[in-house]
Amino acid sequence: KRIGTHIMKDSNFLKEHNGRLMWHPMTSPKDSADAPPTIITGADGVSITDIDGHRVVDGVGGLWNVNLGYSCQPVKDAIAQQLDILPYYSTFRGTTNDVSIELSYELSKFFAPDGLSRAFFTSGGSDSVETSLRLARQYHKLRGEAGRTKFLSLKKGYHGTHIGGASVNGNANFRTAYEPLLPGCFHIPAPYTYRNPFNETDPEALAQLCLQALEDEIAFQGAGTIAAMIMEPILGAGGVIPPHPSFAPAVQDICNRHGILLITDEVITAYGRTGAWSGARLWGIQPDMMATAKAITNGYFPFGAVMMGQRMLDVFEDNPNAKIGHGYTYSGHPVGAAAALACLAETQRLNVPQNAAARGTQLYEGCRALMEKYDIIGDVRGGYGLMTAMEMVSDRATKKPIDAATAQTVQEVAYQNGAMVRVSGPNLILSPPLILSETDATTILTALDAGFAAA
Ligand code: PLP
Fold it and tell me: Which of 158, 231, 271 to mutate to test the pocket of ligand 1 (most atoms within 8 A of CB)?
């Protein structure tokens, strides 16, 4: 295989070096050397192919980002054209590029129902989170409330890996080794019915308890010290935790009452994954900022956008002191912007949220049927588009989490039987492309059935 002028080495060479020279995210170097990762060498439609020629349906959708599948010709064309015309020009003070202007216009239309009309471009999800946290602090300084510096977020939330994002992350795995993190970040219990400190199993009652915890934390910290609350509309990496529908609107009310900005981290949920066009629209809220990335370019290019609402505009625009001392070399990258324009158009033309909702119901119900069959499945969560998790336990009564080896067996046997699925701790997570067909969804469920049967 030739990549440009580079001639690739053969598969034996690649296997020999796999996991040895490259440090992999979220993995210890020793683990990837001892048990090297699957080498993916090709992809088409909603399927991926490994180095041995084994082709499976991608139940992971890349990493929650390949919403439109791997053969999206309009995006490939847009990227190729843009590479010829203008491969890069900066959007820092004094210059810009035409495609990023065009994209900001299209995004302002796309997110108008969410009350968001301005874009700040980034290179990915962690950048978008960082941007929103920094702009939140600047917002309060510009308004003369410099004391508002703290951040609130949900336990089990995932907000990327920069120091700010890690500080608001609600999972110790992404924090402990990197402490001390940003001071002034506080975590509220997540509306996670399967396990919570209140032992509450009713989603609505649990939402109320979490909201009370939010109120209590605000009172304890002092509202005048808090800049923003950041939250995923449906917690994703933490194990697909959809809150009761009353939760997000009530969080927005509480934030409004206390002058706290609400940032929705929609790196996963924007652009259709939940069956709605955005997580904010799913719950009927209007955040002050929305962090997006991933599906904005369908995995074809690293790119992100933070969208801004009216409150941000009121303070930043027409204000000569509101210089934004923040930005990335690749903010508004023309090739990324071209890819995003094509993805946005395809997302709308194909009405992917509608298919995500239909196929999401099929997968969710299929997973619930598997739960009837296999005791190892302690909880199934989802029901909103194509994001579903099965939490695996070694004992349903005590909810003891599954051991890593058994979880790995489920994943490996499912892979042998036709579907790539993702294991994250005790959770088996499904986030396939949103263009999934009924047959593809059935393939994933059949493969999982084989995986659980082998565990
Ligand atoms: N926020 C959320 C909700 C995410 O799910 C992710 C990634 O999975 C991020 C932020 C970080 O995005 P990235 O990995 O593109 O930096």
Answer: 158
For residue 309, give its domain range: 74-349
Interatomic CA distance for residues 343 and 234, integer angstroms: 22
Query: Quick one: 172 and 284 in the same domain?
Result: yes
321 and 175 in a common domain: yes
Regarding whether 333 and 243 lie in a shared domain, the answer is yes
Query: Is the pLDDT at 57 greater than 90, yes or no?
Result: yes
- What's the distance, CA 19 to chain centroid? 25
Q: How confident is the model at residue 1 (pLDDT cuts 50, 70, 90)?
A: confident
Closest CA to 214 of 251, 239, 240: 251
**Does 357 contact ligand 1 (Cβ within 6 A)?**
no
Distance 234 CA to ligand 1 centre (A): 13
Give the chain's domain count.
2
Mean pLDDT within 157-161: 98
With a 6 Å cutoff on the Cβ, whether 236 touches ligand 1 is yes
**Domain harbouring 409, CATH code:** 3.90.1150.10
> Are 347 and 68 spatial neighbours (Cβ–Cβ below 8 Å)?
yes
**Banded model confidence at residue 280, pLDDT cuts 50, 70, 90:** very high
Q: Is 296 in the pocket of ligand 1 (CB under 6 A)?
A: no
| pLDDT band, very low/low/confident/very high, at 451 (cuts 50, 70, 90) | very high
**Nearest CA residue ID for atom 13, ligand 1:** 125
